[in-house]
Specification:
14 helices; globular; FAD/NAD(P)-binding domain; alpha/beta; 7-stranded mixed sheet; single chain; 388 residues; 18 strands; 38% helix
Length: 388
């Protein structure tokens, strides 16, 4: 079954969806409101499920070559004491792939480069959809209307299309935390591939890239909408008593490189990931907190699953039923788990609760941490090539 699709949103999930659809023989246009490629961002970690989804849409090999495996690291206290260690070698043995770190801009560039240039329509905003026909969707773009058998709504956490399709849904809410992140200007000497440091109502973490630079992030309990004229100075003050690696990472960063975003999530789950001939994908469908590092991985799972369903089923309608059935329970379960992880991790602020959490982490066998990662990362995509 072939067809025509319009993907609204040119982020990681939207581009992966376009690649998956093209791989099964569909004609695809990606409509992105930004006039220039969305290469802003710091870094992300990809678990085995995200890498397998990238394999399914055809860019897994390139992504692995550009990413740095995370074999060493774990979670520490502000004083630098280890609470738990990560065994990346064990994860690789269990899943066939370690967790990897990659600059968001690099991954986005790989996805974009795998699409023909004529597939991308940038600097255009989709405000509405024409849903009057049962088997076609009209997508007004400027003075033109793109006709499609399927629209993929991949327009992010504040999705305009989600609001159009589910007008009674309350939409995203502030999760109680804000995140500042950046990449160091030059290679940075640090002994671990990945670390988190947990304090009271705050987390500081880093991942390393293949070029030796480090991405760091600081997640803080804070009111929404607060911004700082000197974010590096604010973070130096906030983390002044934390172990030496943290101020060193801040000192290695250009102030203008710091990005600051409030974290929003869909606390109220959507009743469906589809509406008519529209499929919601990524943050538009299941925006979650970053506390499991699964946001991008779940969007990539969406992309691979949608393409596989369209390749396997006899009609678009049947494929969308299958997509919703396969993706909604899993993605919403991961979102709930991420919320819980934040509440017992970064967001925990009462001194007694923090002390109890730290004691529990120190006493827990390493296999407990490994099992927690495996629970979400152990996912295998349907095969597009066998079904297409």
């Amino acid at each position: 079954m072939g067809g025509t699709a319009v993907v609204v949103g040119g982020g990681i999930g939207g581009l992966a969806a376009a690649l998956g659809l093209r791989r099964i023989g569909w004609e695809v246009r990606v409509v992105e409101r930004a006039a220039v490629p969305a290469d802003a961002g710091a870094g992300i970690s990809l678990h085995a499920n995200g890498l397998r989804a990238l394999d399914a849409v055809g860019v897994g090999t390139a992504a692995r070559a550009a990413a740095r495996p995370q074999y060493t690291g774990g979670t520490r206290t502000p004083a630098g004491r280890w609470l738990s260690r990560m065994d990346g070698t064990l994860l690789e043995r269990e899943l066939g792939a370690p967790i990897v770190g990659i600059p968001r801009a690099v991954l986005h560039g790989l996805l974009r480069a795998a699409l023909p240039a004529e597939c991308l329509l940038v600097g255009a905003t989709v405000h509405t959809l024409d849903l009057s026909a049962p088997d076609r969707v009209g997508v007004p773009v400027g003075d033109d209307v793109l006709e499609a058998d399927l629209v993929v709504a991949a327009d992010g956490v504040h999705s305009r299309l989600r609001g159009l399709l589910f007008p009674d849904h309350p939409g995203p809410v502030y999760a109680g935390s804000t995140v500042l992140r950046a990449i160091t200007e030059d290679p940075f000497e640090v002994p671990t591939d990945f670390e988190l440091t947990w304090g009271a109502g705050a987390e500081f973490g880093h991942i390393l890239f293949t070029d030796g630079r480090a991405e760091w992030h600081a997640v803080l309990n804070a009111p929404p909408g607060v911004r700082h004229s000197d974010p590096i100075g604010v973070l130096r003050d906030r983390f002044r008593d934390w172990h030496d690696q943290i101020p060193a990472l801040l000192a290695a960063t250009r102030p203008e490189a710091v990005l600051h975003h409030d974290i929003h999530e869909l606390v109220t789950p959507l009743p469906a990931f589809t509406a008519g001939r529209v499929a919601l994908l990524g943050d538009a469908a299941h925006a979650m907190t970053p506390h499991l590092g699964q946001g991008a991985c779940q969007a990539l799972e969406d992309a691979a699953t949608l393409a596989a369903a369209l390749a396997a089923e006899p009609s678009v309608d049947a494929a969308l039923v299958r997509y919703d059935t396969e993706r909604r329970p899993r993605a919403q379960s991961v979102a709930r788990a991420a919320r819980r992880a934040g509440r017992v991790g970064q967001q925990l602020s009462h001194p007694l609760a923090v002390a109890l959490r730290n004691t529990g982490l120190r006493l827990a066998p390493s296999r407990v941490t490994t099992r927690a990662i495996l629970r979400h990362a152990d996912w295998t995509p349907p095969s597009l090539l066998e079904q297409g």
